[in-house]
Design goal:
mainly alpha, 13 helices, globular
């Protein structure tokens, strides 16, 4: 339980840090710097623990996880945070366990009960409610159309769901530290060339660099050690349920540090999504 709360508090702050970084770096360089810092932080720990042979033996699979669980989602959320609030993006992020349950059903043949199927329906209904007033795709002179931001967040959540089942199927028994470090190295390699191509012409300021340092070390390096340990011990659906608590912290940070507002409609939709996700992952059961 302690791991869940700590991880939720850490990941809740990641939306704040990514927002600060993306404004000056741009979405793709933000994601690239984040995973590079995380890789540089984790690799010496892997070496000191004597786990480099494990990393070498499994590098292909952990590098794939890196793009699915870090590279692509981080780009998507950094892109989205240029036009929607940290609170809204975190609420959308709460659909990760729902997508994880759906992927586990289709891929791992983890057949859901009737109660879990109902949860999927309720959860997707909550997403539709939340995204309804953000569904415009009309271009704006200053920001990205909110509709594209919402789709980017949902695509990131699908990637998270796929990566959790991939980890359970192909990386079971691998030390969480190896999976965490290898995934960040893989994401770094995958994003390196695009990041150089899209690097901002004006050097970002100190605040942006500090934000990415925090999101790289705390919200990625340390957080993914905890996350992969939860997948190994509790399984993908229950490990992904940590995202239930992430919006609470993300909304709080957004209100305190960015002056963002929270509407009653957002809270209602968040409640629907959380109820649906709790049912779809089996944490809440109506019937078998």
């Amino acid at each position: 339980m302690v791991d869940f709360v700590v991880l939720a508090a850490i990941w809740g702050s990641s939306f704040l840090f990514m927002r600060i970084g993306a404004v000056e770096f741009g979405p793709l360089p933000t994601a690239a710097v984040r995973v590079t810092i995380a890789a540089l932080f984790l690799l010496p720990i892997v070496w000191l623990r004597g786990l480099l042979p494990e990393l070498r033996r499994n590098w292909r699979r952990v590098f794939i996880i890196g793009m699915l669980n870090s590279g692509i989602p981080f780009v998507c959320f950094s892109f989205a945070l240029l036009s929607i609030t940290t609170g809204l993006s975190a609420i959308l992020n709460a659909t990760v366990p729902m997508f994880g349950a759906l992927v586990a059903w289709l891929w791992l043949k983890d057949k859901p009960t009737a109660s879990r199927v109902l949860g999927l329906v309720i959860g997707f209904a909550g997403v539709a409610m939340l995204a309804w007033d953000k569904a415009t795709f009309k271009p704006d002179a200053s920001v990205i159309a909110p509709g594209w931001a919402v789709l980017a967040c949902l695509f990131a959540c699908i990637c998270y769901g796929i990566s959790a089942s991939y980890t359970k199927r192909y990386l079971g028994g691998l030390p969480p530290l190896v999976t965490a470090a290898g995934s960040q190295i893989g994401a770094t390699l995958g994003l390196a060339l695009p990041a150089v191509w899209l690097w901002p012409q004006q050097m970002p300021g100190t605040h942006a660099w500090l934000a990415l340092l925090a999101v790289g070390v705390l919200c990625t390096g340390l957080a993914y050690i905890l996350f992969f340990r939860l997948i190994e011990s509790a399984g993908p659906p229950r490990a992904l349920s940590v995202t239930f608590l992430v919006p609470v912290f993300a909304v709080l940070y957004g209100v305190l540090f960015l002056g963002e507002s929270v509407t009653p409609w957002m809270l209602l939709c968040a409640a629907v999504i959380v109820c649906g996700t709790a049912l779809s992952t089996g944490l809440l059961k109506l019937w078998r």
